[in-house]
Hints:
The complex is a heterodimer. Chain A folds into three domains: 6-171, Uridine Diphospho-n-acetylenolpyruvylglucosamine Reductase, domain 3 (2-Layer Sandwich), CATH 3.30.465; 175-261, Alpha-Beta Plaits (2-Layer Sandwich), CATH 3.30.70; 264-338. In chain A, 29% of the residues lie in helices and 24% in strands. Chain A has 14 helices and 17 strands. By secondary structure, chain B is an alpha+beta fold. Chain B is 38% helix and 18% strand. Chain B has helices at residues 8-11, 14-24, 34-37, 61-74, 126-133, 152-158, 165-168, 171-174, 202-206, 240-252, 265-275, 294-309, 322-333, 335-342, 357-371, 399-416, 435-438, 441-454, 468-480; strands at residues 30-31, 54-56, 78-81, 98-101, 108-112, 117-121, 138-139, 175-181, 187-191, 215-222, 224-225, 230-237, 259-264, 284-291, 315-318, 344-347, 375-380, 388-392. In chain B, the strands form four sheets. Chain B has a seven-stranded antiparallel sheet with strand order 15-12-14-13-17-18-16, sandwiched between helices. Chain B has a five-stranded antiparallel sheet with strand order 5-6-10-8-9. In chain B, α2 (14-24) packs antiparallel against α4, α11 (265-275) packs across α14 (335-342) and α15 runs antiparallel to α16. The two termini of chain B are 27 Å apart. At the A-B interface, β7, α7, β9, α8 and α9 of A face β9, α9, α10, α12 and α18 of B.
Amino acid sequence: xxxxxxxxxxxxxxxxxxxxxxxxxxxxxxxxxxxxxxxxxxxxxxxxxxxxxxxxxxxxxxxxxxxxxxxxxxxxxxxxxxxxxxxxxxxxxxxxxxxxxxxxxxxxxxxxxxxxxxxxxxxxxxxxxxxxxxxxxxxxxxxxxxxxxxxxxxxxxxxxxxxxxxxxxxxxxxxxxxxxxxxxxxxxxxxxxxxxxxxxxxxxxxxxxxxxxxxxxxxxxxxxxxxxxxxxxxxxxxxxxxxxxxxxxxxxxxxxxxxxxxxxxxxxxxxxxxxxxxxxxxxxxxxxxxxxxxxxxxxxxxxxxxxxxxxxxxxxxxxxxxxxxxxxxxxxxxxxxxxxxxxxxxxxxxxxxxxxxxxxxxxxxxxxxxxxxx
Amino acid sequence: xxxxxxxxxxxxxxxxxxxxxxxxxxxxxxxxxxxxxxxxxxxxxxxxxxxxxxxxxxxxxxxxxxxxxxxxxxxxxxxxxxxxxxxxxxxxxxxxxxxxxxxxxxxxxxxxxxxxxxxxxxxxxxxxxxxxxxxxxxxxxxxxxxxxxxxxxxxxxxxxxxxxxxxxxxxxxxxxxxxxxxxxxxxxxxxxxxxxxxxxxxxxxxxxxxxxxxxxxxxxxxxxxxxxxxxxxxxxxxxxxxxxxxxxxxxxxxxxxxxxxxxxxxxxxxxxxxxxxxxxxxxxxxxxxxxxxxxxxxxxxxxxxxxxxxxxxxxxxxxxxxxxxxxxxxxxxxxxxxxxxxxxxxxxxxxxxxxxxxxxxxxxxxxxxxxxxxxxxxxxxxxxxxxxxxxxxxxxxxxxxxxxxxxxxxxxxxxxxxxxxxxxxxxxxxxxxxxxxxxxxxxxxxxxxxxxxxxxxxxxxxxxxxxxxxxxxxxxxxxxx
Lengths: 374, 481
């Protein structure tokens, strides 16, 4: 099914006889095995764009590329830097903005600017009874009633099918630059990143590759702004990093950051790929426990991309660490066995299950996706 | 404004409830004497007051859980309270309710500069969170104007904002985790020292739920290093259109100021009389503040001033030093006090798209004539969050009602132009009956379904946020149960 309007989509959900697999661009690799496919691509186009108010309202099935082109024409951007999953997952198709919000997809800048969910101002969605629900709006400050926008962001379609989202956008700075350190152990790298993230210099990316392009560890710390600002801040960061070895400044690191955002080092590597969200200072010990075949640290250590031998249960190895591990790339059998999402403590799982039952009483949407009870 | 009739069967339980609560709390934490309970009869929306049946002041999450479990068993409504600074009546009791105040829980539990967070008990005041980390150069960004008094519990409940949200966001963008007690006494932890939820973003819907989903007892908050410096510039214009266009152009230019504040003529005059900050007596005034090192500030201000000059300002004043900066902020910061000298006032909180500013100001002026009450405007222009102050005389019979009717019309206008009823104060009881202006029945039903899941008996702060007739069946079902 590919409804062309919100009303058609609502009708399709209202009359659905069995499970539905919601697909935006189909690039995020979580399409349920079962269920009739319902595509959002027919709901496409920018409804409203006010650069002077930093506001964009867009149909959920609109391609991310179309959104980014429109923003770039006004010198603006999606500040949360959404990842493109295609290279990692070997998927094809055009990622949609609805998919970005439904999966709360953010990139390296999440650590400073916020996640996709922080930039979502409003949503329209169709719940499991076929009812159209609006929440939030198109203004930056809005506490009118409950924030179902945050609840739907990152819900992977389990509460409803997004039909429209309103986003806060931000100016794209004129320049960026990175301070680059080489040869650091993971412990030292996390310490270095932590020092810069606790500085006044508004670091917008802090990542560590234990195996950089030439095999040696590389740590990169990014700042963005106008040219003098980038020059000033990279200089101050260099000084701040005294004691962590030679730090050089690179101004042409946009491609490196895109590679980190899209987990490029694992594109061609065999194995399962996990995404671990943790307290940054826990990252070195967690990485040790993982016994991984590959590691990438983003968000100053708070996000670890872990390459594991196929079928390995990373969660068991990590134990209870206060964060969560999501299985991003794996064979269907592994997904079925280990689960894509980390299970939740019983009282939280009960709330999640209760919400799903209320928003999707017939259990139509993406059955099997999202967390299970521990 | 209507509140549900107190339930006589609940009032009849007062003594038993007091005794049961006294078994799980220290004696001084259970307040049953009507004279003492009167302290909790209202919050900062002082037009409405009603003493609660009882008030309790638990000292730990375990005590909160014990209290809620008992109230749940007894079927007694509970109204959570932080510092009682809500402007929307969020902590207004009913006569058959128990006030649960978190004021005794104000400890810092953990400060972690390496991972940039602080974990506090939620009775702690907003400003004292920054106070706990500023020696290390850090701060907690959301800064509601009541920050000296308001508690983190209330900030989380209302998703509070402040003057610096354009750059730093509001509470929900700075809240990493909570420990929360559900109405049946279950303790849940959401989020923590890591970023983003592994499952549904329950933290996202708890923040801003106005104490209706649970009682938040601990919060993990993101802390940031302070900027190297900050400097404001003041601009005067002879029309609000020019000021509004200037705001949009600044935002489009790519400079992201930390604050853009707007004041209209009536507000400027009142502030000038009160604080003598040396403001130009013009139609509209902007204060724009940027942050960074001295050269970074200078570069940003150069861009901003160049934009301002294109809009024919009647005044442009750059702060040369800290004294200048303080003087520029002086008038703005005394705006509410200055209005209080003029008259009683009601402070609204709607948000509008920045582009609608001139139209909204014009129509508000027309309404002001119609209702015969003056309205002054001071607001966060960068994010469109308006704070119209309607001046009235509380001692003149009927004026409060006229003022409320005028306020309702302004909020309807905010929604009509694409905005919302409340940007940072919350719905509470104040805007409860206007919710249908912004949301349809299905939209409200979806929100109430969330409460059904967290608090099936509808006992937590039940008479707030949703129009009473919309929530009535849910609330009454449970009284009967």
